[in-house]
Amino acid sequence: MTDPISLQQDFWNRWNSSTREKHIDEISFRQAEVVRNWLATTPFPRQILEVGCGAGWFCRELSTFGELTATDLSDEVLVRAAERLPQVEFVAGDFMQLDFGRKFDVIVTLEVLSHVANQQAFVTKLASHLREGGQLMLATQNKPVLQKYNRVPPPSRGQLRRWVDKKELTLLLSKDFDVVELFSVTPRANKGILQFLHSRTFNRPIRALIGKRLDAFKESIGLGWTLMARARKKAVTMGRAC
């Protein structure tokens, strides 16, 4: 049974307070790097919506690319984020129930998909807030890498979890979007053979010789912790009457 929104809200307020307000790890930094590169090639005007902004750790940078609205279930955390970042419009609440009253050029959502009850409905809701041709920039956990090569604690009360693989993500997006790019980033493992292959002991001498090309190769064959997807909202076509 899915935990009610109130339990999810309590969990994410606690989690963001204890984690995201204090520390950003390499996984999040790499996701931000990819989105930043995408935004650098996205034409103006840019009205941007970040869905699942957490403590607002990425909002300052996103706001340099356009007018930013950011939303999250963590209402207590967003109060503090709004004090730090007055240039951002923060909206607290359940995204599935919100209406922003306008459409956006770009939606950014990082590691949210796996924490919603109805993933297809979530993707469709994202599309409904984009202008025709608008872009979705999405990051989510890479299911086979987390399941096979990482020890991850079980979800806590109020924390929904359903990871997807590349095929499942493509299927979820295909109804409302044309997928432009889909790839993995940030090789990480804490069990099995990949734990050694991703270790500093193994990688340090190789990086000294070839730089980041080994990591790029691992990402290219799907060994990254994160799946990154850039997708364009499909055009609405009207059928002809017979």
UniProtKB/TrEMBL annotation:
Any Pfam family hit: Methyltransf_25
Domain Methyltransferase intervals: 48-134
SUPFAM superfamilies: S-adenosyl-L-methionine-dependent methyltransferases (SSF53335)
Molecular function, one GO term: methyltransferase activity
The UniProt record lists the keyword tRNA-binding: no
Metal-binding is among the record's keywords: no
Gene Ontology BP, a term: methylation
Keywords associated with the record: Methyltransferase, Transferase
Protein's recorded name: Class I SAM-dependent methyltransferase
